[in-house]
Structures are given as structure tokens and as C-alpha cells.
Amino acid sequence: MRLRDLCQVDHLGLKVLSGHDLLDRRVRGVATTDLIEPGRFLKAGELVLTELTWHDGPESAGRFVAALVEAGVAALCSGTALKVPPADLIDACADAGLPMLALGVDVSFSALTEYVLRALIDEFGSAPGRPYGSRRRLASTLVDGGSLSKVVTTVAGELDVPCWVMSATGRVVVGSQPLPAGAGGRLAHAFLSARFLPGTAAQADGTVLSVFPVSKGAPHRIANWFLAYAGEQVRAGGEHEDLIVELAALVALERSRLEAAQRIERRVLDQLLGLLASGDANLPGVVSRLHTLHIETEHGLLAVALAVEGADRAEEVGVAVLDELLRPLAPGVATAVGREAVALVPLAGNTAAELTAHMLAGAATLEAGLGQARITIGVSSVTTGPAALSSLIEEARHARTLAELGEGRVSAITGADVSSHRSLIAAIPGELRRSFRTRLLGPLEEYDAAHQTDLVETLETFLEESGSWAATADRLHVHVNTLRYRLKRIEELTGRSLNALDERVDFLLALRMR
């Protein structure tokens, strides 16, 4: 296929910005990237698609174009993240002799990619051949209606090793066979923490699995998918590398299709949130949009707010992360509200505690790839009707704001926490919390460490049992006289009386601050 032929396809709406005399170049593939220096991930003859999110001036334009020219790509095609392609990039392409195209504003990258892949299949046929035989076979499987699972199984057969597509939380999207028990977390950690990719992860039984990123232009590694396959990293320039690279490109295409469908749902959710925020929402309009989003309220509904603080393109990353954390327990749709991602989540047979635990487990896995960023989560209480949606969303966003005051890479506050002493604790600056805790519990912690005792555990159990001597002694499996001695020792070390209610409250708050 020549660039000239591609530019004459009406429904793609391609506009030539530079290199009008170079349109006889052949297009031998397509790649999407938003890296500032993507050369090592590109092949000669590819049409490079970019949303220009990397662009911040003439210097970046020069570096990007130089990398494309060195890789020998056919042309550059800009997307619609910036409505008007920057003049310095057009000039850099013209000076370097690189054709530059602009995609129609209503055309997605996935539509252009699909058209190019289909055209290459039609042009070259189905016969295998190097270097594009593998691509044609795999693309033909996907473009002609085959499932992503079938494509992965095909690659696994050609590699003669198991192969999986996975999310950054360790969730298997599709695979050629079941993933070994416990491998998901190790693979996710290897993918998220590797300084360079591809990488490898040793399994509990000594076998080695390799990881390979699906999209080099993902906004953040925690929002990306990756490939996992048995064995060491594929040999550079070998046939297996070609298969893995082409599989990654096709998985990225399939994910872009899924994201296109989600964008439609996201617009409906945006409309619903806009209605609720305006105060003019009528019940039929709310119910209609909930129905369009397949959100049922009869089994309970809650709202979740999430932010990825300190990350580039934080809103985009937050939406992708929240979508992922809700799967597969409660698949839904998230959208950006300010710098937060917000989702309405039907419980559908799960409890709020189960859903929260599921999200926190996924977020804990993502910690390995956060770097200096943080994930803060707010979860509302549960409602069974659509009338309280506005307050539900506000509760989740307020809870997430309180979660910002927490410590650690992942911090979460639930609706139950908002209505308890936990929200007050979260609002206290961290240094003040540490000081308060140390003054009350420091003497006990030091004594326990020096004498191998359990005074802190004894105190906590005593307060949890509402000061009941018998219940506390029973839980600790000690005689009441032993308990009496321990509590007296606690009072001596702290100078506090456990008979006074306000002293007990102080101890309880200090324990909750641990």
C-alpha cells in the first residue's frame, strides 16, 4: 500500500501536511506511540500514529522526528489530542523529508489501524513470509472477527510456550491456558518494577516467565497491559521477537476497540453526573441513564472516587486504574470529574466490604509501579435507590479527600469511616498523629520490645471488649489475675487510669493511629 492510496480513502479524512512529493512511499505496517524517542520500538515502513501528548515545543518535535527518520518509517500521522498540529512539528517533518498526515477529527486510531491491517492482508495474501507473514496471519485472525483469545492461542502455538495477556494488577485478560497459581502477582510486580522492559519473573517452582509491554505509549505503566510468556526474553531480531511484537500491537488494537466502546458509556455517565450536579435532575432522566449504563440499584449501589496523585496525565491514568480495580468483581464505567475518576458501582450480589477489599488488593499490587505517585480512594455508603445519587457521589469524593491525608502509597477511606472517628483521625496532620501515638503508646512498645511482653495487645483487646475483664482474659487465654497485673503495669508505665472513660478514649484513638 502506498501513502497516496491511503490518503484517497474518503472515510479516513487524511490531510497531507508535509511531504506532498513523497506519497509514493510504501506502508508496511502501523504503530502507535507517544514516547518522545520511540525509535527502538519502530520498524522501517511503518505508519506512525501519535496523539502528540509528548509535544512541548520545537525541541521535542525535532527529537521525535529524528527518531522516526532514523527508524525509516513511512510517515507520521497525528491524532486529535491537539486540534491543530503544531507548526514546529510540521516544519521539522518537512525539513527531514518525512511525510506528515493529520487524521480526520471523527476517525479513531483503531479505525485507521484496522483499515491498514486489512489492506495489507488483501495486498500480500495469507502466505507466510518474512518479515510480515506473522503479522498478516495474526491480523487476519483478529480483523476477520476472531477473538483475542484465538490470537493469543495462535501465538502460543507458534512459540510452543504458554502465553497470556495481563493487566497491571495481575489479572489475566486472556490466556492460552490457566496461569500457574500465584504467578499473577509475581508477574505484575516484575512488569511494574522492572527498570527496563522486556523483563523476566522467576516463579515459585523455578520456571521463568517473561513480560513485554502491550503499548509503549501508555500514559503510565500502572494503566498498561502486558504480555507474559514462558521462558527467557525472546532473542532480539529473531522470529519469536517478531511474533511477540506483533501480538503486542494487535492486543493494543483490541484494547483501543474496547476503550472506544467505553468512551460511549463514559459520555452517558458524564451526562448523568452533569444532571446531578445541576440540581435539575428528574427521576425518569436519572433512571433512563442508569438503565443505559446497565446499572441496577435493587441490590445496592455505591460510588467510588479515585485519584493518582503525582502522575503525568493523572486524570487519564485515574480513569484507567479505577476501571481496572473494579474488574472483574464489579465491571462498570468510570469517568473524570476534575482531577478525580468517579464510578457508580452496582453491588450485584457482593457486599461493600468485599468490593472495597477487592479494590484495595488490586491497588496494593500497583504500588510497585507508582514511583513517587500515590493512589487515594474514597468509597461511599450504599443506597438502593436512584434518588440519593448526588449525595452518594459527594460522599465518595469527600472520603477520597480525607484519604489524601493518610499515609502510604495507597490510602482509602470508606463511607463508614467518614461517619466515625476514623475521619477525624485522617484529618489530623501526620506529624501530630505520630506525636500523640508515641506519647501514649511509646512506653508500652518499648517495654514490650525489651521484655518480650504483650502489653499493647492486652490494652487493645481490653478496649475492644469494652473493659470486660472476663471477656479479655478469655480472648488472651490468660488468668484474670494475670490480666489484672498487665493492666496495672500499663497504668504505671503510661501514668493513665483505665477506669476513666476519657483515658480509654485516648488510648483507643492512639491505637487506631498505629
TrEMBL record:
The residue ranges of the Purine catabolism PurC-like domain are: 5-120
Positions of the PucR C-terminal helix-turn-helix domain: 455-512
Name the InterPro entries on file. Answer: CdaR-like_regulators (IPR051448), CdaR_GGDEF (IPR041522), PucR_C-HTH_dom (IPR025736), PucR_C-HTH_sf (IPR042070), PucR_dom (IPR012914)
> CdaR GGDEF-like domain spans which residues?
279-400
Which PANTHER family does this entry report, sorted A to Z? CARBOHYDRATE DIACID REGULATOR, CONSERVED PROTEIN
Write out the similarity annotation: Belongs to the CdaR family.
Indicate what this protein is called per its UniProt record. Sugar diacid utilization regulator
Q: Which organism is it from?
A: Streptosporangium brasiliense
Q: What is the lineage of its organism?
A: Bacteria, Bacillati, Actinomycetota, Actinomycetes, Streptosporangiales
